DNA sequence: TATGAATGAGTTTTCATTCAT
DNA sequence: GATGAATGAAAACTCATTCAT
């Protein structure tokens, strides 16, 4: 196993364990055992537990960002592109339960101090350009209501994320028809 | 300080500390010190840490439920009542940062196993009846889109909660006009 | 055992173990076992290992200071008082091997950052007044050579300390006659 | 870099780090980084950490021994030769702070078990003959007081060493005049 | 020979909980 | 009931040393 593979194995083990047991009920010794690395090796890759958890967040967030734009294409209509992203988000959270549980815990813990991206964009937010493209017309004029970006986010992708999260708790999955209804309602909600 | 006051002091201390330091970075010894009670006394009121945290959740959730319906009246129009609840939710999360941070952590932690209320309603959900009243007309026919309750929740109160949460991180507060715009969009989004 | 006695037991255990095994070959677990306290209890009394070691130094230094002036009296001649202190120092280092070994290690480790006492005197140096009394005549004029205090110290008490230290390594003890010869030579060395 | 140069680089790095951080707060990994050698390479030159530290002591002690007799000549008077050695010792400890700090730590640590030289002399003590030469007259009769060698040492070279050590802690350096006064006092102290 | 990632035993430290006073 | 010192199991982390490349 290469150096990079070992690092991935540690992150994967941590992801699985944290999803199952919680951020703070996951001792490093268990991550070591589950990943097949020794305790010392984890500290070779990460300075401490916190560093490992931040790295895991970055790793998961990157996966999510790739999933969010899968299938996107300039040929899609604005609403088509929106629906795609909305459904991608929903399905990611629904099918990647470990990732989803981890993100919930991490982003609501004191570990998390989100940076508002400016100037040079941080990798986790690398698909923001695509999101912005949906929000302006060909002339660069906004087509959405004049609301802060976080409000627009919560009325759209946020809704997908949170509904998917509810569905983890034993509720029946939503059929595609229902999802499209919700996605459409979200779209309408932010459009001028 | 009476028995009940001491219990409240413990819960208040725990609330403040957990909001600041996180659910799992808050030792019982610190709660003892901050509350002015001894470690032993805490174990008089609660069987263990988990019990204390569940009690705190109940306590905070009850506060929230009262805040949610403040000012409500049968004379308000449907949308008027909706706006009121939406704004109540937003303002609660915005002005009660400790409570808000605690709820975020608790409800995304392994402590939390939400029960879908049936038959006898659990106290935390005691204002659900009011919510349901908004969703049916005088003849008992639904006036909202035919969507699961959790979807309706996330498109409305959930949005209020999550936007308020973003605003904790240093973003400027939203003006009342903007909030009403968002509340209205949420209302439209779920109505038939 | 009272709270204070437990603290003393911990310090005594640490002293013995550090003298035997060295400052850094003495795990807290061993101090716990030797003292009859649990590991946790040590951390009740001291914030961490370093804090415990500083406390031990203070404790030992205080013992030494008391030993240094034992038998002293205003009626003794200058040289008589000097001889007394010199011999007290020698015998302390010679008979208190654990204390002596600990001081050697501590005061030559990076733990040690001696403060030059000014204005308010630190407890460890509480017998400095007695030392100064030996150095001036009734008119307050110095009777020693005009040398810095640390030089005077090293030519006198320091010599006692270091010779006693050599004698720990298996060399035969010095007879009282020899000690007085050395003490006298030291006295002569610093006198005008 | 040759094999021997690499060994020197390792010892120099260890010397600097131990002086700064202490004998037991200097991990081999840091010595590796500071010296530019890999961890494995260090174990090529030394069997283990203890071996490296003993080698460093030997290295430093040899440097000191050369410094001690620098400028010595059979033509110097007894006291002239004594003054030279005394000042050499003082200046070595004063100008070689890393070496000085290392020796303090090493010689007060459990690593150190000094051998009293008999028969064949160990290299570190190779200038003892020069010291002895100062102590007898042309007829081989002792000219010093009849005291054990360690006492004579502590009243002379030991004083130089310890005063220099005090001067490391921020005290102003001693002028040459003062040093000669002390050296002379030391000389007088041991002479018959 | 040189490298440096990996090891894992050993160390410090934490903290929920108990119980004698 | 209230106290808070004591407990000790469990956690995070360190570091001398090895060994495959």
Question: What does this protein look like?
Answer:
The structure is a homotetramer of 192-residue chains. Chain A has helices at 3-21, 28-35, 39-45, 49-68, 78-95, 97-107, 128-133, 149-155, 157-167, 176-190. With 192 residues, chain A is mostly helical. Chains in contact: A-B, C-D. At the A-B interface, helix 8, helix 9 and helix 10 of A face helix 6, helix 8, helix 9 and helix 10 of B. The first copy, chain A, binds a DNA duplex (21 and 21 nucleotides) through residues 3, 6, 27-29, 32, 37-41, 43-44, 48-49.
How are the SSEs ordered, and which strands pair?
The structure is a homotetramer of 192-residue chains.
Chain A: H1 3-21, H2 28-35, H3 39-45, H4 49-68, H5 78-95, H6 97-107, H7 128-133, H8 149-155, H9 157-167, H10 176-190
The first copy, chain A, binds a DNA duplex (21 and 21 nucleotides) through residues 3, 6, 27-29, 32, 37-41, 43-44, 48-49.
Secondary structure class of chain A reads mainly alpha
Q: What's the domain count of chain A?
A: 2
Rg of chain A, rounded, reads: 19 Å
Proportion of beta-strand residues of chain A: under 5%
| Biggest sheet record of chain A | none
Treating each run of at least 4 consecutive H or I residues as one helix, how many helices of chain A? 10
């Amino acid at each position: 196993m290469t150096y990079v593979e070992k690092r991935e194995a540690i992150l994967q083990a941590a992801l699985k364990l944290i999803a199952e047991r919680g951020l703070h009920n996951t001792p490093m010794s268990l991550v070591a055992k589950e990943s097949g690395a020794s305790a010392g090796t984890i500290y070779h890759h990460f300075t401490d537990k916190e560093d490992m958890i931040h790295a895991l967040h970055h790793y998961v967030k990157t996966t999510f960002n790739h999933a969010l734009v899968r299938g996107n294409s300039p040929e899609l209509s604005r609403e088509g592109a929106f629906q795609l992203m909305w459904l991608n988000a929903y399905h990611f959270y629904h099918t990647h339960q470990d990732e989803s549980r981890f993100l919930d815990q991490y982003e609501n813990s004191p570990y998390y101090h989100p940076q508002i991206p400016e100037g040079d964009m941080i990798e986790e937010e690398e698909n923001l350009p695509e999101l912005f493209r949906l929000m302006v017309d060909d002339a660069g004029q906004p087509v959405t209501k004049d609301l802060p970006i976080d409000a627009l986010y919560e009325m759209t992708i946020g809704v997908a994320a949170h509904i998917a999260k509810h569905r983890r708790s034993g509720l029946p999955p939503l059929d595609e028809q229902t999802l499209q209804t919700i996605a459409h309602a979200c779209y309408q909600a932010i459009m001028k």
